[in-house]
Write a structure and sequence with these properties.
Layout: H1 64-73, E1 76-80, E2 85-87, E3 95-101, E4 103-109, E5 115-122, E6 126-127, E7 140-143, E8 147-153, H2 154-163, H3 165-191, H4 194-210, E9 218-220, H5 225-232, H6 236-248, E10 252-255, E11 258-261, H7 264-275
Antiparallel strand pairs: 1-8, 2-7, 3-6, 3-8, 4-5, 4-7, 9-11, 10-11
Length: 276
């Protein structure tokens, strides 16, 4: 499963700014606080109605009463340490997962042992949609940093969707975005040069982060250049060379994984030229 509409670079609605959206820990699952204390089991209960990601996740547009129903549905939160798998290819499909904090990649493995990165997911996005058709997951979901997800049992979600038409409508919109995303990836891999692919990737990444209250021009890459290359269909050397070229041309300022976009218009021009 890939990210919804990964190469769309149109402005998105921005979420409420919250410095604790990203990067929680086991002691402080929301990324807030300064004193370590044990985690109570009941603190894992999720309240969608009060979540700061509610405008980016599944409950978009639901009434307060409908959100309360959804609160009862969401079973728990789950912590996933960096490098650990949320699920593997072939695992039974039982739940969807809404990323609350952290960052994930999805990947599939070829018969020859090579891995292909198929997407990167951040806070407010769903994981697990790949398992709906066959009742088994079709990819691995690996945490790129310590992360936390909300667990949504799918059978109960289906039951609630029959009762709450707005929830069913929202879920259909998410599935539709997956179809649009597939079209975008075909364009990305089928007709764009290396520079255009990387420009589209960076613009989309900053756009998604900006919608979550982060900077629109500065970011820390959670994935390696090799993983970016796997996703974009490029060799590691090509990705590194393109980053260097962008820096030389003044598009970016690159310091290892710290990226600052210096010329957003120039990057957009690269992508727009590819679509002409």
């Amino acid at each position: 499963m890939l990210n919804p509409t990964p190469i769309s670079i149109e402005p998105q609605q921005r979420a409420d700014r919250n410095p604790c959206v990203h990067g929680g820990t086991a002691s402080h699952p929301d990324g807030c606080g300064s004193q370590s204390r044990p985690m109570r089991l009941d603190s894992f209960k999720v309240a969608c109605s009060s979540c700061n990601l509610r405008e980016l996740c599944l409950p978009v547009g639901l009434t307060q009463t409908q959100l309360n129903h959804l609160d009862d549905l969401v079973a728990s939160r789950r912590m996933v340490k960096r490098g650990e798998a949320l699920f593997h290819t072939g695992d039974p499909f039982r739940s969807l997962y809404a990323v609350r904090t952290g960052f994930f990649k999805t990947r599939i493995s070829a018969e020859d042992g090579r891995d292909q990165v198929t997407g990167f997911q951040m806070a407010g996005e769903l994981l697990g949609l790949d398992g709906i058709s066959t009742d088994r997951h079709a990819c691995d979901a690996i945490a790129l940093e310590d992360s936390q997800v909300c667990v949504i049992p799918y059978s109960q979600l289906e039951d609630l969707s029959r009762e709450v038409s707005d929830l069913q409508h929202q879920f259909h919109k998410i599935m539709s975005r997956e179809i649009v995303r597939d079209h975008g990836v075909m364009l990305l891999l089928g007709s764009m040069r290396a520079e255009e692919r990387l420009a589209a990737f960076l613009l989309n990444l900053t756009q998604r982060l900006h919608a979550r209250g982060f900077s629109a021009s500065a970011l820390v890459l959670r994935m390696t250049r090799e993983e970016i290359g796997s996703y974009l269909g490029l060799k590691l050397e090509t990705v590194s060379r393109t980053f260097s070229k962008f820096q030389e041309e003044g598009f970016l300022e690159v310091k290892q994984r710290d990226i600052r976009i210096m010329d957003e218009a120039g990057l957009r021009a690269l992508v727009n030229n590819a679509r002409c």
